[in-house]
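dumping this here before i forget
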Amino acid sequence: MRGILLVTYLFIHFLAFAQKNETNYWLGKSTGKLPALLYGLGDDRLGGTKLGYIDSNILLRIIDSSKELYTVQLSKLHSALIEKSYIRHDSVFSAKPFYLTGSFLVKGDSLYDYVSMHMDEHLPYKSWMEVEPSKIMVDIYGVQTNTNWITQLQSVKEIKNVYYNQVEDDVVRVTIELKHAQHWGYSLSYVGKNLVLRVKRQPAILDLKKMVIAIDAGHGGNNSGTEGIKRKISEKEYTLLYAKSLEKNLKKLGVKKVIMTRTSDTSFDNKDRILFLQDQNPDFLISLHFNSSENELVSGVSTYYKHIGFRPLSQAILKRMLELKISEFGNVGNFNFTLNQPTDFPNVLLEIVFLSNVEDEKKVIDTKFRQDVSLKVILAIQDWLKLNK
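structure:
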């Protein structure tokens, strides 16, 4: 009898403990300018490693807190971090016991292809690119599938196939296969009750003259960047000179449209640059910077990308830049720089040379070198476009 009572006592306390843990959270929603989910507590000068940006008004379950970050439970087996400034408390909303996906619709209009995924709630997600073959992958957290049909219309031009798998009890993975090898970009956000993936198509004519090109002159205004080791030249000044040189040479070729993130010494927050560029919708972006190292012997050119689908452009630019007889610092992937984060259009960061190296700094102030750099970048773009014809 005592044994039965003891077991009953322990079972009741276990249920109470489980119930307490089950409700030991509060609900919030994402807010602010480009909220991002972080993988962990790691940090460096570029910030923590990101799962990616998410839409505003995403329902998040807050389970822990540190000085500047909240821990959010994405699903049973997955959590992430988010800066506190990007969360607003929702005291009225109450969570449902479970959430479901509904029907999918795959269609196109005159400009884009779309995958519209019906959802019970604005739940968190992660997306990424895959290559060979090219795919866009989307994980939706905290949800069970009830998608019993995917309607696919003949109006799509870039999307080849769409299908999903329930990869965990509360994680649905959607696979979007693409027709072209090169990723041209996509955006992911909620529209009403639908999580909508908007896919950019490959331009019908891969002619540099017919494309919209964005050029970012790094830094500016109250953000000077680095400075030269001997002549103390300012990075913000010379990125603008090199950006204008590239713009001038592109226009000489008859390029349809060149978008400049800045044309003078003005302050322009990097997140505001992203929002500006998303609104302008370029075919691709090149961000110009100069590098720096504590080791004065380090020199050379390097290119950077975040998303594997955008690597080919960065490789093409590095290859052409090396024809200028400068040393190679490398092609760097998964880079956490803000302007490499967008998935909306191919983008590359070009660190032309090191201002912390005497010989590299000498090159930077040479007007012929400036002209040569712009011409090599243009040749690289043309190389990249030929690969996709």
